[in-house]
Amino acid sequence: TEKNDLNLAAYTGTAGGDVQLSYAIADHIGLMFNGSFADRTSDSTDNYHKHAFFEGSAGYFSKVGNAGIAEIYGGYGFGTVDSYYDSPIFTNNTLANINRIFIQPGIGIGSDFFDGYFATRLAMVNISQNNTSETGFFIEPVLTGKLGYKYVKFVSQIGLSVPIHSSEIEFEYQPFMISLGIQI
Q: Is the pLDDT of residue 177 over 90?
């Protein structure tokens, strides 16, 4: 909400582990850095999923009344995914590089005890693998709730990833996300 505000949050959920860092470098200018990581293996099969993804963004924010905030951020992210899935019907092995560009408007309210926030990310995602490249466009609404006191709050996020032209998306993506964590 003002210059020198710093937030650090750590989550676990359907996407793996996530770390989010934001810092207000001025009264209306902020920076965000996020990371997502997973290393999931099956105990009974050779199936696995691993990913590491990083993104950074800059944006403008402004107070709305006494408890509200409106903001817009734009950014870029990159990472890799490595997965293997074998079933009686098919086998899928993926090793891909991911790049995404996004714009994220959002609005929220906050107090010493509770924060509520809604953002919708518009993202262009490019996946490169085996000398091919595919691009998809997504709308990603997210609802965040924080409960605690002042500087330490428990956080929950729920969101969707909806392709704009689903008939043109040929790569797999995670359509639903839910996570729990803590913010300092």
A: yes
78 burial type by CB count under 10 A (0-12 exposed, 13-18 middle, 19+ buried) = middle
The per-residue pLDDT for range 24-76, each reduced to its tens digit, is 999 999 999 999 999 999 878 889 999 999 999 999 999 999 999 999 999 99
Q: Please state, in angstroms and rounded to a whole number, the distance separating the CA atoms of residues 122 and 120.
A: 7
State which H helix or E strand residue 66 sits in: none
Residues 151, 35: Cα–Cα separation, whole Å: 22
Which of 71, 79, 125, 130 lies closest to 102, judged by CA? Answer: 125
Q: Which residues of 105-124 are buried (b: 16+ CB within 10 A; e: fewer)?
A: ebebebeeeebebebebebe
1: which 2 tokens?
């909400």
CB neighbour list of residue 73: distance below 8 Å, 6 or more residues apart: 30, 32, 57, 58, 59, 60, 103, 104, 106
